[in-house]
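Standup notes
- DV: blocked on the single-chain target, sequence here:
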Amino acid sequence: MTESAKKKRILIVDDDPEITTMLQVLLELYGYEVRLAHGVAQGIVALTADPPDVMVLDVMMPQISGLELCRYVRRDPRTERLPVIVFSARSNDENVRQAMAFGATLFLKKTANREELLAAIDRALGLA
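- DV (later): unblocked, structure below
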């Protein structure tokens, strides 16, 4: 398989198994390779083991906020350029501003439809 034909890898970090499973099924239908991490600690392990092409990240998680993981990603030279899509139910202007200040590439509301999600992933990957 050539590099251009290689499947793009997405890491989804969210503590809600229903959300992660739904996203995994949808994205795999569109040809992405999807890995799941249920919480920030698992997200860090997944990033360290095999950095993805893009990360979809929830904000509200127990113990450590997803924004702290975003900050970690930006501080690590191995992942500092990794596209991070914050995917959150909290989508007022202040939450969006804060996510971008922590280094998010894009902010997407959890109420986004399939087309909006796929378009955000394409933008984050530089495909749109």
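- Follow-up: The radius of gyration is 13 Å.
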